[in-house]
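User: quick one, fold this
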Amino acid sequence: MIKQVSLHLSQLTVFVSADMRDLIEREAADVFCAEAVAIFCYQVRKFIGAYVAALGGLDTLVFTGGIGQSAATIRERICAEMDCMGITLDPRSNASNASVISTDDSPVTVRVIKTDEDLIVARHTCRVVTNLALSGGPRPRTSRLMPACQPSWTLI
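Assistant:
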């Protein structure tokens, strides 16, 4: 859902959205949306580069989740300047959301893997709740910044 927030300073209008599709849709007409998309892609590129450096190389790059498996334009922008790391996309495969979107001669295989994010969150939540129930519930934590406190809920 898009929320329009009007800032009456210089008659500036800013759109806030939790959905990348909204930003992509508006970026041609809204410089702030275009900048938000560009910054997002740049930050992802930086993280990938940092991991490649830390790992000493890369065999496979995987895109997953809502943006990773659905937004070909975002994958293209993220990988656009990464051929120095062996990442080369095949434009047709990328546009069709194929499972492998790198070129055949790309040193790094780039994959798109579908995931059910809601199921993953539900599994993690179930694991946490089960572990709390088996351990007798949460224990009070103490630190110099936060004194001991009792949990405000009980597990039934």
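User: anything notable?
Assistant: Residues 3-117 form a domain with the Nucleotidyltransferase; domain 5 fold (CATH 3.30.420.40).
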